[in-house]
Structure formats: structure tokens, C-alpha cells
Write a structure and sequence with these properties.
The chain is of the alpha/beta class and 437 residues long. The protein contains nine helices and 17 strands. It is globular and about 65 Å long.
């Protein structure tokens, strides 16, 4: 389970345990296998505190260090509009974040629900990127190559069944693929192996191929983590970004069921938050109903960076809204649209060291949807059991090198114990992902 503790202020989440529960059984080859996500990616022991000048006290590349005893003079500049808005917003939420996080941490450390974030048989070590993993740029390039296929008429869903001994020879580009079994499966793309959780559906494509999801069913929960434009992304070239007008073109109204809960991750740049609340959601006929914060802490409950740091904050924003739909059903408002969504909730967890690996939302959204909701994640970089996921990096963190195989004797190896983790679904037994109707 992802939720270790639930309180009036929010939830303490165990992201690593959530991932590992999906891979107790992997059907691959003559015997069942068990995998766990490498625990070193969640081994955040100390806060990331940088010197006031340069990160870690290291001088920027290409510049001569200043002679000892002399300080570099800095020009004092007036804060721009974005900086002023960021300070004002932080002033509004910081006290609630500080007190709420402390409340959750103290009660959890007191033994009221804390779990080990490690995994059996896995040691904590240096956090390194798998050398053989396909990077974001390569996955994006593969998606560009698949544009021709995306322009074809809808092809049938590619289903991985239990009858198929191995999941080989699959066309994973711009093709809706579903692991319909209760076990994890291993697939191969361009010579690289990826681990699929049970009961998951995914589409690996760029934004031009998103139409493959339209017309195949409606979703009760839609989450999205857009690659927002910012200066650091442009400088690093680490991954592509989208402009606001491109994000606005995502066909959420064509994918959302009446009363659908829409949750968007937003960076701490206030112009992005303002765009979501004032332009994006209204353009999709989505009404803003709440704003939550994901608070990042170390394994010892400290903020990963000082709460009042001028450069980075130890929290991210999640804006939630309800899809109001078309006027035809406005009078017969669905039950889900009347379910209240609490405001100002906190999700506290040890973050993954891998960039943009967000915590799971399924369990914290329980009670805000009807039974057995159909769940969709847009701009996904990993897969979840019981969910449909789309993105040009949707398999990024499913690469087998991010996982470690355990001796079957260390786990039960029993496929029947794999649980579905949708937003409010029945966790007592697995069920087929019925998002594709």
C-alpha cells in the first residue's frame, strides 16, 4: 500500500513499497520471478543544502575562482513579477506545510504506521543511472519515428495474455498495449528489456499519437505531469518541453467521463499555476476544486531542502478539478461531481532521486470517485497496475536495470497476491483493466 498513515492534514506515503507490491510475481521463462525497484533511488538520508553562492560550493564551469579574501560583488536587482508572486504564495502556504508535515512525521516516527522504505535483499548504495537504459531523448526519437503508424486508423489493442508464454515480437510504438495478466511481464524494445506491472495499459507515443485513446472509453480520473517550459530545461537539454498552447490541445474533454477528477502537477513557478487555474482548466470545462502539496522529506523526516530556501522549495503543487462536461447532462449531474474534494491536503514522502518520478495518487484519491474508476495518466514516465498510461517516456522507469531480481524464496512468488491500485478500486483482488471498452 502507498499510504502508511492518514491524518486530517494528509498522508504519509511510501512510494517504494507501492512500486514493489506490483512485482511479487513476474511471469517470464520457466519459473516465476520477483523484482523490486532498487532501493538506493529512495535512499535520501540528508537534506540537499547548497551554499548561498553556487551549488555545493563549486564554482561554475568556465569561470576562474575568485582569489581568497576577495568576495565577488553582486548586482542587486529588483525582484520580477514571478519572484514576487512566488514569495507571496510561499508566505500563504508555508506555515500549514511546516506544521502539517511535522504532525505527520512525529506521529509516524512514534510508531503509528511507519514502514521500512527499503526492500528485502537490497542494500542502499550510490544512486546511479543504469548505463544501458534508454534515455528520454531516445524514447522521444522512437516516438517520432512512429508518427506514420499513429496516423493510421485505430488498430486493435495489443493484449498480453497468460496463454502467451513470452511477451516477444510486440509492436510497442504508437500501439495501445495491455498486460491483461495478474503477473508482471517483461517486454523488449530496441534490444532493451522493460518490466510491465500487472493489469496495466499503455501507449508509447508523442502527442500526435494521443488520438489512439480517444473513442475507446472515458476515464473517471485523469492525472497529468506536463513537461513545463523553464530556463533550466532549456539550458540542460535534458528533456523536451511543451508550451502552454500545446498543453491546451490535450483532448481531456474527449477522454473525461462526467464528473471526472482531473489532477495536474504544477511546478512552483506561479505563471504555470495561474495558467492551469485560469486558462487550462476553464478551456477544458474543468472547475478547480482543490490544491494539494506534495512535500519531500528525507528518510528521517527533514525537508529535502530548507522550507524557506530562496531557490528551491521542498514541495510541489497539485491542482485538482472536476470535469463539468457538456450541457446535455448538466441537469442530471453525476454522483461523482457532487463528491467533495478536501482542500489544502499534504502528501508527505521520501522522493525518488530520479527526475520527475512522482508519488502514486491512486490511494489518496479513494473516496473522491465512484467504485472501480477508470484511471488515466498523461505524460507518464512509469506504469501503474490498473491504470492506462500515455507519454513519449511512458516506459522510462520500467527499464529492467532500475529493478533487482530477488531469490523467489524471499517472497511468496504468488501471482494471486498482486493487488490493483486504482483510485478507489477494490484492493482485495485483481481485475482486468477495463478502461478500453
Amino acid at each position: 500500500m502507498a499510504v502508511v498513515r492518514s491524518d486530517s492534514v494528509g498522508w504519509w506515503l511510501d512510494h517504494l513499497s507501492y512500486i514493489n507490491q506490483a512485482y511479487r510475481c513476474c511471469h517470464h521463462g520457466p519459473r516465476p520471478r520477483r523484482y523490486v525497484f532498487r532501493a538506493e533511488y529512495f535512499d535520501i538520508e540528508r537534506p540537499h543544502i547548497a551554499d548561498s553562492g553556487t551549488a555545493g560550493g563549486v564554482e561554475p564551469a568556465g569561470e576562474d575562482p575568485q582569489p581568497k579574501g576577495r568576495k565577488r560583488k553582486r548586482k542587486i536587482q529588483e525582484p520580477n513579477r514571478g519572484e514576487v508572486e512566488a514569495r507571496e504564495y510561499h508566505g500563504q502556504v508555508s506555515l500549514a506545510i511546516r506544521d502539517g508535515t511535522r504532525k505527520l512525521v512525529d506521529r509516524t516516527e512514534a510508531g503509528e504506521g511507519r514502514t521500512d522504505t527499503g526492500a528485502p535483499g537490497v542494500g542502499h548504495g550510490t544512486k546511479t543511472r543504469p548505463a544501458s537504459a534508454i534515455g528520454s531523448s531516445m524514447l522521444a526519437e522512437l516516438c517520432s519515428m512512429a508518427k506514420r503508424m499513429a496516423e493510421e486508423q485505430h488498430r486493435p489493442v495489443q493484449v498480453i495474455s497468460l496463454e502467451a508464454g513470452t511477451a516477444t515480437g510486440l509492436d510497442l510504438l504508437a500501439r495501445l498495449t495491455q498486460n491483461a495478466t495478474d503477473c508482471a511481464r517483461i517486454v523488449t524494445l530496441m534490444g532493451h528489456r522493460y518490466l510491465l506491472p500487472p493489469r496495466c495499459t499503455f501507449l508509447l507515443s508523442d502527442i500526435s499519437g494521443l488520438g489512439a485513446l480517444v473513442g475507446r472509453g472515458k476515464y473517471d480520473v485523469i492525472t497529468l505531469d506536463p513537461p513545463w517550459e523553464n530556463k533550466s530545461v532549456k539550458r540542460s537539454g535534458g528533456y523536451s518541453h511543451l508550451f502552454p498552447w500545446q498543453i491546451r490541445q490535450i483532448p481531456v474533454p474527449s477522454l473525461a467521463a462526467p464528473g471526472c477528477l482531473v489532477a495536474s502537477w504544477v511546478t512552483n513557478r506561479q505563471r504555470h499555476r495561474r495558467f492551469v487555474r485560469e486558462e487550462l482548466y476553464p478551456g477544458w470545462s474543468v472547475q478547480v476544486v482543490a490544491e494539494w502539496h506534495w512535500v519531500k522529506v528525507t528518510r528521517h523526516g527533514e525537508f529535502v531542502v530548507p522550507l524557506d530556501s530562496a531557490h528551491k522549495k521542498p514541495y510541489e503543487i497539485l491542482v485538482l478539478g472536476r470535469y463539468k462536461g457538456s450541457p446535455e447532462w448538466a441537469e442530471g449531474e453525476p454522483v461523482t461531481a457532487t463528491l467533495p474534494v478536501p482542500d489544502r491536503k499534504l502528501m508527505v514522502s521520501v522522493p525518488c532521486a530520479l527526475h520527475s518520478h512522482k508519488p502514486p495518487l491512486g490511494e489518496v484519491l479513494k473516496g473522491l470517485t465512484g467504485p472501480h474508476p477508470q484511471c488515466l495518466e498523461l505524460f507518464a514516465r512509469n506504469l501503474q497496475p490498473g491504470w492506462t498510461s500515455w507519454g513519449n517516456e511512458v516506459l522510462k522507469f520500467q527499464h529492467l536495470d532500475y529493478f533487482q531480481e530477488l531469490d523467489p524464496e524471499e517472497g511468496d512468488g504468488n501471482c494471486s497476491q498482486t493487488q490493483e491500485t486504482g483510485a478507489g478500486g477494490d484492493h482485495s483482488a485483481p481485475r482486468a483493466c477495463s478502461a478500453i471498452r
